[in-house]
Q: What sequence folds into this?
């Protein structure tokens, strides 16, 4: 099959015109020059000299600047104040620049097609013929070469077969440079920046093949237009080799194309990740994140990062399974050489870490390493991202491979009838995980290849997927292959990479180049339905320069810890898919890229947002003056328009003036309220479709504002008429005395109660993984995940360890004697369950014993009054109280009651207007009764009046449904009742006023 290229895609035409229109007013013409060594040029006859053809521009600086402003205004980009710009300092990434322009295009939107077609347009309108495409790597160079081959016929049809020749710069064939300079038709040279700009580059040397003229001088005389692909990797350093060699070529103009520019120079077009996703130009993304549960039985340690600062001790940030109040959970913390992991402040005192200690922490290379002293097993070295004591890596990999194959089969059931081939891509850490070689060099399957074929066979045998194999039987071995660097004998090799992830030596580059050649040749073959290969395994080979439109699943079996790995990985599958005829398909719901990740979808979303912020040098989730500029909306006549820079700044100023954003552009709670009430004021001249887009964006921004803060504020004042009155003083005298308590505790009864509860306890869960699928909503307001579904749990194999000291661990947590704990465990008959999941078992037993102990305590508690009282000053005025929690009253010591629920609000209103109630008070938070379960704050103090007898001074607790209270709450209320019994004050529980009046 062959790719079919579309000639009229609006986003591509916009990018092409943005560059071409910079030269409006230029007449179609070329310059001629003669080529000969300077020292003998005067001695040669005219016919002995070689004529060269150069680009020529007669435009004045002012004309180019006017054109630039027109283009920037068209695309809602900030206007460049001047054309020639001086560097703002040594650290200015732009340096000095003039005819330097940037085109920002998201990966997968046709960047290479755009700049190749721009070459033809510049030739058609202005006669420019000399172009140099500079790329950072062999991978991208080969990608450009392949795209030129694929688009050849397409461009010949559009441009009436205009002569066009391209070549890859080769230092061993310098005759191509002579042809480049001397040809009157379009010539394009493609070169890596290393081949042109390194110190030993032949391009800068005078050679016999180039008539003793350096190649750079031949090119310089043509005044080429330089196109830079991925400039952040080519010339990000203004004084580096890349920028130096490009200046030496004295280009007529330099156009830089990338999704992530470091230096923006003069921006002429922007189609960033947010625009591309909004306009459906790339696949949408969903993440199926692994959630590992009940896997904290082993001494899990993960090294996150190393920090070494001058004058400070080296330290490491690790993740560890720590005992928290609610159970064991993975927490990160800083540790030092000598830190004992079993210590309370590290692991919460978990005995599973007994003997584990941190050793030497250093950062001699890479991200650093840390020693972990393992009792009975010596010293282990952990590098950043490395783990010890986690669930079995092969077990988790198997679950992820299975999940990927299942996603693949489901997509294939949908795609195949549409004529669309489905591909999946696995990123792995090491070649040996997939392919190994014996002593004589014979290839053997690595563990991941074995796992893949096992899981493929199991799923292929399921009835729901049988239709996929009706014509061709399932063959797991032919469905997958590896794309890795290869040596001369075709064996997969592990490349050597430097700290930035680039190949660090020539051997690695040569071996990678063999793979790139294979990958590029395979691109169309992979899309042929008759080709059985559907699953690809790779790592460093598939980076910039390779993608495939029909990759629908990407499974990352490696850590996503790197700052760019999420964005880099998904970039390999963002393009819209094509069918068997090579046509791009845009069917609704079809183009979804599923990422199967080791981390949860929330962590993936946060990491992706961080990577995007770093790559694009922006802060997502805040409102900036130019945030809305460039938003594309549909006009009533079907055309499109964009929000201008001026309109965006007017919107920003309006939001700031209305107090809806703070000085840093962060959304305030008031924005959420204004959106809910539809009172956000936008400029009156903003078209309705544009206003809707802006409001939608603001809604997404406001999602991240805490709901509890999005409230109007009020104040609470003292009601002195009540506070200083006789009735309140009498009430306060009766209820404000403090008490102490003693317990009557029966060990035998506690053992019996807890043993019974343990017998009824569910069996502890085994280590398992569940995949949670969430759609990633990508916009300038941030990356927002929306959960879609949860998979069936899959069992994992954990690290096999002896059951820890159960009695010691339980005694540490419950403070009960070992004999009592032993009696509970033995009488329960549940001891065998401890071997299934020790951590979960201990957590469950601890919770049951603590609950039983609480109930036993409250059954026999006795309070005794003290000669201490709470002060009346606990009632105090308050400022900035949420208005929707306040109820205005007249018969209480404060003029408003601050309520915690609708039940309390309704009861406060009823108490205030009831003729049966003289006065009442919501007891302040500082009024706390001591109990074995912590402190308890009752709700109400009330003076109830009767016609025929004395007033009753009472305390009441108000709850929505007293029958559904947790055991701990019931126990605290029982303690409160016992406290007030000691003071001879009635204590009642009720949900409304009628229930109070009935009881007193």
A:
């Amino acid at each position: 099959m062959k790719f079919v290229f579309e000639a009229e895609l609006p986003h591509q035409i916009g990018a092409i015109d943005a560059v071409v229109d910079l030269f409006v007013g230029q007449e179609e013409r070329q310059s001629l020059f003669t080529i000969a060594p300077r020292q003998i040029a005067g001695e040669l006859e005219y016919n002995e000299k070689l004529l060269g053809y150069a680009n020529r521009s007669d435009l004045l600086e002012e004309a180019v600047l006017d054109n630039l402003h027109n283009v920037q205004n068209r695309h809602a980009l900030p206007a460049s104040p001047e054309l020639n710009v001086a560097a703002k300092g040594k650290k200015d990434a732009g340096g000095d620049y003039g005819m330097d322009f940037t085109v920002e295009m998201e990966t997968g939107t046709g960047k290479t097609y755009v700049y190749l077609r721009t070459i033809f347009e510049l030739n058609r309108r202005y006669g420019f013929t000399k172009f140099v495409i500079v790329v950072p790597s062999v991978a991208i160079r080969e990608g450009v070469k392949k795209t030129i081959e694929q688009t050849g016929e397409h461009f010949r049809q559009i441009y009436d077969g205009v002569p066009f020749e391209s070549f890859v710069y080769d230092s061993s064939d310098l005759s191509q440079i002579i042809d480049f300079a001397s040809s009157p038709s379009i010539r394009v040279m493609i070169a890596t920046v290393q081949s042109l700009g390194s110190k030993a580059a032949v391009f800068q040397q005078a050679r016999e093949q180039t008539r003793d003229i350096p190649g750079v001088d031949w090119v310089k005389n043509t005044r080429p237009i330089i196109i830079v692909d991925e400039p952040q990797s080519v010339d990000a350093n203004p004084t580096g080799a890349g920028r130096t060699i490009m200046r030496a070529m004295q280009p007529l103009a330099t156009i830089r194309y990338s999704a992530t520019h470091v230096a923006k120079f003069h921006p002429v077009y922007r189609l960033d990740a947010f625009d591309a996703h909004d306009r459906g130009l790339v696949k949408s993304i969903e993440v199926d994140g692994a959630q590992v549960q009940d896997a904290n039985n082993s001494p899990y340690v993960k090294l996150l990062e190393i920090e070494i600062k001058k004058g400070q001790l080296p330290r490491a940030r690790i993740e560890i399974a720590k005992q928290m109040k609610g159970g064991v959970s993975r927490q990160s913390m800083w540790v030092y050489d000598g830190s004992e992991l079993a210590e309370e402040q590290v692991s919460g005192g978990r005995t599973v870490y007994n003997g584990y200690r941190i050793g030497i922490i250093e950062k001699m290379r890479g991200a650093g390493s840390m020693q972990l002293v393992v009792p009975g097993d010596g010293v282990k070295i952990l590098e950043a991202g490395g783990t010890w004591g986690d669930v079995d890596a092969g077990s988790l990999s198997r679950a992820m491979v299975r999940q990927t194959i299942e996603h693949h089969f489901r997509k294939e059931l949908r795609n195949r009838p549409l004529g669309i081939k489905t591909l999946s891509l696995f990123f792995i850490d090491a070649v040996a995980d997939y392919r190994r070689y014996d002593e004589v060099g014979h290839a053997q399957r690595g563990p991941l290849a074995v796992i893949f074929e096992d899981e493929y066979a199991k799923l292929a045998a399921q009835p729901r997927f049988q239709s996929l194999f009706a014509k061709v039987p399932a063959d797991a071995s032919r469905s997958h292959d590896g794309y890795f660097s290869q040596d001369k004998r075709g064996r997969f090799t592990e490349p050597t990479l430097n700290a930035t992830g680039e190949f660090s030596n020539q051997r690695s580059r040569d071996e990678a180049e063999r793979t790139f050649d294979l990958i590029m040749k395979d691109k169309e073959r992979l899309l042929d339905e008759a080709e059985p290969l559907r699953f690809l395994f790779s790592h460093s080979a598939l980076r910039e320069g390779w993608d495939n439109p029909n990759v629908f699943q990407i499974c990352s079996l490696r850590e996503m810890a790197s700052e760019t790995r999420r964005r880099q990985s998904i970039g390999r599958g963002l393009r819209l898919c094509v069918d068997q005829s090579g046509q791009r398909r845009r069917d609704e719901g079809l183009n979804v890229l599923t990422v199967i990740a080791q981390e949860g979808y929330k962590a993936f979303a946060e990491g992706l947002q961080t990577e995007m912020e770093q790559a694009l040098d922006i802060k997502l989730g805040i409102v900036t003056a130019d945030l809305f500029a460039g938003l594309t909306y549909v006009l009533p006549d079907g055309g499109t328009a964009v929000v201008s820079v001026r309109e965006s700044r007017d919107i920003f100023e309006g939001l700031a003036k209305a107090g809806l954003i703070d000085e840093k552009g962060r959304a305030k709670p008031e924005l959420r309220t204004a959106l809910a009430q539809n009172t956000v004021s936008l400029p009156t001249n903003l078209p309705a479709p544009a206003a809707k887009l802006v409001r939608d964006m603001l809604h997404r921004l406001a999602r991240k504002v805490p709901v509890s803060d999005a409230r109007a504020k009020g104040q609470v004042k003292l009601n002195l008429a009540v506070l200083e009155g006789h009735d309140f003083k009498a009430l306060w005298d009766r209820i404000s005395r403090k008490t102490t308590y003693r317990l009557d505790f029966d060990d035998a009864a506690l053992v019996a109660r807890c043993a019974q509860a343990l017998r009824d306890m569910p069996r502890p869960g085994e280590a398992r993984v569940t995949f949670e699928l969430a759609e990633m909503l990508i916009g300038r307001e941030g990356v927002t995940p929306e959960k879609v579904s949860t998979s069936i749990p899959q069992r994992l194999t954990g690290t096999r360890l002896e059951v820890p000291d159960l009695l010691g661990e339980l005694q540490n947590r419950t403070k009960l004697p070992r004999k009592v704990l032993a009696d509970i465990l033995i009488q329960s008959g549940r001891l065998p369950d401890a071997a299934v999941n020790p951590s979960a078992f201990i957590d469950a037993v601890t919770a049951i014993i603590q609950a039983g102990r609480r109930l036993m305590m409250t059954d026999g508690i006795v309070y005794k009054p003290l000669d201490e009282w709470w002060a009346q000053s606990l009632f105090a005025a308050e400022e900035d109280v949420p208005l929707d929690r306040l109820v205005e009253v007249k018969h209480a010591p404060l003029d408003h009651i601050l309520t915690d629920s609708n039940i309390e609000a309704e009861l406060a209103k009823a108490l205030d207007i009831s003729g049966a109630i003289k006065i009442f008070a919501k007891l302040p938070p500082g009024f706390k009764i001591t109990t074995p379960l912590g402190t308890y704050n009752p709700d109400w103090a009330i003076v109830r009046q009767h016609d025929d007898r004395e007033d009753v001074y009472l305390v009441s607790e108000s709850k929505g449904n007293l029958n559904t209270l947790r055991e701990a709450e019931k126990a605290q209320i029982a303690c409160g009742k016992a406290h007030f019994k000691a003071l001879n004050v009635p204590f009642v529980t009720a949900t409304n006023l009628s229930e109070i009046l009935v009881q007193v």
The radius of gyration is 37 Å. Residues 393-415 form the longest helix (23 residues). The first strand starts at residue 30 and ends at 35. Residues 38-48, 707-711 have pLDDT under 50 and may be disordered.
